[in-house]
Amino acid sequence: MESDEQSIASAETHAGLARPPGESGTREGPVESESVKRASSSGGGRSSYRHEQVTSRVRIDAVLRMLKGESVDALSLELGISVRRIERWKTRFLEAGSAELSKRTDTPPGGWVAKHSSSLRDWFWLLLALVAVICLLTVFMQRGSQG
Question: What is the domain partition of the chain in residue ranges?
Answer without folding.
Answer: 4-101, 117-146
